[in-house]
Write a structure and sequence with these properties.
about 400 residues, alpha/beta, Molybdenum Cofactor Biosythetic Enzyme, Chain A, Molybdopterin biosynthesis moea protein, domain 2, 4 domains, 5-stranded mixed barrel, about 25% strand, elongated
Length: about 400
């Protein structure tokens, strides 16, 4: 395991973690099951959008150059949405038209009902209009063959609408990455248990499993192991054989009862990352088993576990699925100063306020799960020593900091 002085910074640790990651296979799914999956094909317009000139509102379609002061135009027909259209309208007349209905040939403008007397012949409040008024022109949204959405996005509701619009009933997506979550510790009890003062209910595993699901993974395996090497080895082997990514919580430090790391090594796991110069989360490990199975070992303290899940598991899942829009870091400013760690890059849970500023709540270390209640994501606070230059001030200037919102899909 790396010492604090030799452990890589986050950027280098993540680079090592992602090195050699293989993409998951592609599969097709029904459109109604596509939300949350990562698209592996481009969404391409199969025809002009819209496919014809159509009305933007309920009203009257006419020729713009035929509207003059005092004009009264006969209403010769009505066109509804879904109608196939009609023959050319005689000069000097108009048609009643519904929102979304196709404009008859030769007509080039629409006047809303509210600007008319709704009679027949109809008179308008306007003396003149320009061609194109309230008309949604053919191909104005996209021309046939236009790429509407590139592969690599995690599909949301509006993407499903696009897929349906272009007739893609079974999109190609990445197979969901199968994840196992194994927690350890003799002090942990089931959620429904009544713990004694020396015991705690198991909160880490449900939290991390929920976080992994929100990242697009499929948690297929859950286990809790006592601080005993034999049981730990058996549980780890089952998880490695069943999953694409095995995530462990706790048991990776150097204590006599920390068995996760040594048992994984005995099973043949090779480490790409064996500790990182970050706070919290210094003991984090990332490795491979038999080339294709990823292993991510998170620290046992709850804040460390959740932060490291977002810092390492989230980009690992994105890489395997071929997702190109995650993790999405944004630049934000702090509301109040935060003291930087002397040498480690800090990733502190924070709350995004309505004005776009971040509030970093006070905490009592990485075991303080309670302070996460109102947090919305993680803010990165650089170390006080950057590039060998010492800065003893609080990180209280008005510069921007990287922020990852963990509420985003």
């Amino acid at each position: 395991m790396s010492t604090p002085s030799t452990a890589p910074d986050y950027a280098k640790a993540l680079e090592r973690a992602l090195d050699g990651v293989h993409a998951a296979p592609t599969e097709t799914v029904a459109l109604e099951a596509a939300v949350g999956r990562v698209l592996r094909q481009s969404i391409i317009a199969d025809r002009d959008l819209p496919p014809c000139d159509r009305s933007r509102m309920d009203g009257y379609a006419l020729r713009a150059d035929e509207l003059v002061a005092g004009a009264a135009l006969p209403v010769v027909d009505e066109v509804r949405a879904g109608d196939p259209g009609m023959n050319e309208v005689p000069p000097g007349s108009c048609v009643m038209i519904a929102t979304g209905a196709p404009l008859p040939p030769g007509l080039d403008a629409v006047i809303e009902h509210e600007r008319s007397d709704r009679s027949d012949p109809v008179r308008f409040e306007l003396d003149s209009i320009k061609a194109g008024r309230s008309v949604h022109r053919r191909g104005s949204d996209a021309r046939a063959g236009t790429v509407l959405c590139e592969a690599g996005v995690r599909l949301q509701a509006h993407h499903v609408g696009l897929l349906a619009t272009v007739g893609c009933a079974h999109p190609e997506v990445a197979r969901r990455i199968r994840v196992g979550v194994i927690s350890s510790g003799d002090e942990l009890l089931p959620v429904t248990a009544r713990p004694e003062a020396h015991q705690i209910r198991e909160g880490n595993a449900p939290m991390i499993a929920a976080a992994l699901e929100s990242m697009g993974a499929q948690v297929i395996h859950r286990a809790h192991v006592p601080d005993e090497p034999g049981a730990t080895a058996q549980a780890l082997k089952r998880g490695l054989e069943a999953c694409d990514l095995l995530v462990t919580i706790g048991g990776i430090s150097a204590g006599d009862h920390d068995h996760i790391r040594p048992q994984l090594e005995a099973l043949g796991v090779d480490w790409q990352v064996a500790g990182a110069r970050i706070k919290p989360g210094k003991p984090v490990h990332v490795g491979r088993w038999q080339e294709d199975t990823l292993v991510s070992c998170l620290p046992g303290n709850p804040v460390s576990a959740l932060v490291c899940a977002h810092l390492f598991c989230r980009p690992l899942i994105a890489a395997v699925c071929g997702r190109r829009d995650d993790p999405a870091w944004a630049l934000r400013r702090l509301r109040e100063p935060v003291t930087a760690d002397p040498v480690r890059r800090a990733f502190r849970p924070a709350r995004l306020e309505a004005d776009g500023r971040l509030v970093v709540p006070a905490w009592r270390g990485s075991g303080d799960l309670a302070h996460l209640a109102d947090c919305t994501g993680i803010v990165e606070i650089g170390p006080a020593t950057e590039d060998g230059l010492r800065d003893d001030r609080d990180d209280n200037d008005d510069r921007e900091h990287r922020y990852l919102d963990w509420r985003t899909p």
